[in-house]
Amino acid sequence: MNLLKNLAALAIRKQVTGALRAHCPEPLRDALETLLADDQAVTAIRNHIASKLKDPAAITADSLLRLELPDTARRLLSDNGELLRYLVDTARSRLGA
Fold first, then answer.
1. Which residue in 29, 40, 41, 56 has the most C-beta neighbors within 10 A?
2. For every residue of 58-93, which 3-state class applies, written as one string?
3. pLDDT digits (tens, 9 = 90+) for 53-78
């Protein structure tokens, strides 16, 4: 069962990262790639979004900043409000909010 869970998580990650990359504004691309290279940060953000499937409005900049993120990812999001807003807006729109 663990193998199936891991495969599902990998598929979701590829879908999420693909959507983020496909629509990312050029000025945010480098910061986004830095964030996506951090597996721990991506997993925390993905799990947070998955936990809000029924309430996408609960995905906010504050909720993302409250996650247990590696220091580098936390600083990146704290220092780059546009990237943070892009993540929130993309997550909400993908969930139909």
1. 41
2. HCCHHHHHCCCCCHHHHHHHHHCHHHHHHHHHHHHH
3. 889 999 999 999 999 999 999 999 99
- H-helix or E-strand containing 43? helix 39-51
Tokens of 33: 């790639």
pTM of the model: 0.83
Inter-residue contact 23 to 90 (CB < 8 Å): yes
Angle between helices 81-94 and 71-79 (to 10 degrees): 100
Amino acid symbol at 49: I
- Contacts of 34-39 with C-beta under 8 Å, sequence gap 24+, read 34/72, 34/76, 35/73, 35/76, 35/77, 35/83, 38/70, 38/72, 38/73
